[in-house]
Amino acid sequence: MNADELRAKQAPIKRRYKDTPEAAKVTSRAEAVLSDDDISCRIKTWAGETVAGLHAATGGDGSQACSADMLLEALVACAGTTLKAVATASGIALRHARVSAQGVWDARGTLGVDRSAPVGLTDIRLHFDIDTDAAPEKVKRLIETTERYCVILQTLRTPPAITTA
After folding, report:
1. Contact 78, 85 (CB under 8 A)
2. pLDDT at 85
3. pLDDT in tens, 79-91
């Protein structure tokens, strides 16, 4: 897809959202069903079912998905798709691009070993590896724009209100 094709595809969508802002509100959804026989749950994804369970650092055997890894996977998926869309819209040809993320969490926190240890990811590093002929200032702007419009990155930077029931 090139910039003109992307603009043509998005133009009626953008017009609709300008005319009817409420139509732009999208509800995303996820659901987990807990297992009866082990400490895991099943999550239906667009690609099939994923079984998530305990990380090896907390008693798992490493055979099930780790929710922290899944969060990072969502981040790189969003950042990668956004990067490609921004590059396409900007007419920046990418020979190769890769987005990676690493996050650190302290297992003592989630296991209750040390109440002062944090629970959750405390340090996330997002890295863009881009091979292009574009000028360095265009690549810098490409990354800045990607960061600005990446839904998952912005959600992590400015956490939403979360309610439980």
Report:
1. no
2. 97
3. 999 999 999 999 9
Q: What are phi and psi of 140, to 5 degrees?
A: -60, -45
Q: What is the DSSP string of 102-161?
A: EEEE-HHHHHTS-TTS--SEEEEEEEEEEEESS-HHHHHHHHHHHHHH-HHHHHHHSPPP
Asked if residue 122 lies in contact with residue 105, where contact means CB atoms within 8 angstroms, the answer is yes
Counted residue by residue, the chain has a size of 165
Phi, psi of 153 (to 5 degrees): -60, -45
For residues 109 and 144, what is the distance between their CA atoms, to the nearest angstrom?
A: 33
Task: Indicate the pTM of the whole model.
Answer: 0.93
Ranges under pLDDT 50 in the chain: none
Q: Taken in order 67, 68, 71, 72, is the CA torsion positive or negative?
A: negative
pLDDT value of position 73: 97
Amino acid at 132: T
Domains observed in the chain: 31-65 (no CATH), 67-157 (3.30.300.20)
